[in-house]
Amino acid sequence: METLLLNGSDVRENAAMAELVPAIEEAFGAFERGDAQMPAKSYIDLPQYNGDFRSMPAYLATDEWDAAGVKWVNSHPDNPERFDLPTVLGTMIYSDPETALPLAIMDGRELTGLRTGAAAAVATDHLAAADATSLGIVGAGAQSYTQLRAISQVRDIETVVVADRDAARVADFVETFEGEYDVRGGSIAEAAACDVLSTVTPVEEPIVPRDAVGEQTHINAMGADAAGKHELEDEILLDSKLVIDDYEQTTHSGEINVPWSAGTLTDDDIYGSLGEIVVGKKAGRTDDDGLSVFDSTGLAIQDVAAAHVVYEHATENDAGYAFDLLGVA
Fold first, then answer.
1. Fewest beta carbons less than 10 Å away: which of 197, 202, 310, 317?
2. What is the pLDDT of residues 99-116, one digit of tens each?
3. How far from 6 is each of 27, 49, 115, 273, 321, CA to CA, in Å?
């Protein structure tokens, strides 16, 4: 049997967001029900290169399919300036769990952006007000695009405000979506006042103040993925219905990691996990809810679910390059 090699364009063209969002929701449900295995994300720190590697393996089973895979991903902030490479690269190996044959090797960078947006959409669907029509985004990098495309699958977004200190990135974002939405650049405070807010920055000092956030705003805190990163003022977390993706990862490297490590925020301040809400163990938004936050670190089960969608469509569409990895054909 052959292995399918899929580059970033192949991944993007075979990952319809309308299918990714329910697939990621299935992954959260499988994890909560115990139908998934996901060892803790492991890190290799490389301070001599100002970077790190992370390995993210997982297996999950749904009523219709099961799959396994591992993503080998990194963060090297010096890459753009020194080597003309992205800060984050990644490779996804998608495997048949019955035989262990690698069915596909695909670009993990594109996959990460897509599944991260889809995870925010799942959280938004369960936690944002049903009539939410405005979306604020803090950070106009690659993740901002998939945040809008994914969240628009679950809410009728009309107005978009994007904030970034790089005016050129804001201009590129506005140009991309002009005509589809009422989209404009604005301040962090203007973005935070929207019905839904997604933060996608790598900062280590909070940049979203409590007094800027709407009283019923739902926030997707997507930027923190390493110890010390922190986008939201502590008061936002303490005043919110706080939902996490995974306890071990969020306390180590999610949005809550800094106040949790300091004891400012405790386990009692965490409402529950998104998986618990997906399977109905805990309620999502209720009529009594105000501010809500989803702390997302990104889970390997999301990568496997997204890779499943990509692989199925890529095989249908004859996309990518099929080759004999084992050398026995």
1. 317
2. 999 999 999 999 999 999
3. 22, 28, 16, 32, 7
The single residue of 41, 71, 229, 241 carrying the catalytic annotation is 71
Q: State residue 328's pLDDT score.
A: 74
Separation CA 7–CA 298 (nearest Å): 21
Residue 243 has pLDDT above 60, yes or no: yes
Distance in angstroms (rounded) separating the CA atoms of residues 94 and 318: 17
Q: Is 241 a catalytic residue?
A: no
Q: What is the mean pLDDT of the chain?
A: 95
Tokens of 288: 């009594």
Options 3.40.50.720, 3.30.565.40, 2.30.40.10, 1.20.1600.10; CATH of 116-299: 3.40.50.720
CA–CA gap between residue 251 and residue 273 (Å, rounded): 13
Angle at 227 between CA 222 and CA 229, to 5 degrees: 45
Domain 3-111+301-323 sits in which CATH superfamily? Answer: ornithine cyclodeaminase, domain 1 (3.30.1780.10)
Residue 324: what residue type? D
pLDDT category of residue 40 using cuts at 50, 70 and 90: confident
**Quick one: residue 100, left, alpha or beta (phi over 0 = left, psi -120 to 50 = alpha)?**
left
Determine how β-strand 134-138 pairs with β-strand 196-199. Answer: parallel
pLDDT band at 329 (very low <50, low <70, confident <90, very high): low
Which stretch of DSSP H or E encloses residue 151? helix 142-151
What are the tokens at 110? 């594109």
Q: Which DSSP string do the residues of 124-142 spell out, in sequence order?
A: HHHHS-TT--EEEEE--SH
Tokens of residue 325, six digits: 């990895």
Q: Coil, strand, or helix at residue 102?
A: strand
Taking the C-alpha atoms of residue 160 and residue 144, their distance in angstroms, rounded to an integer, is 11
- Going from N- to C-terminal start, the domains of the chain cover 3-111+301-323, 116-299
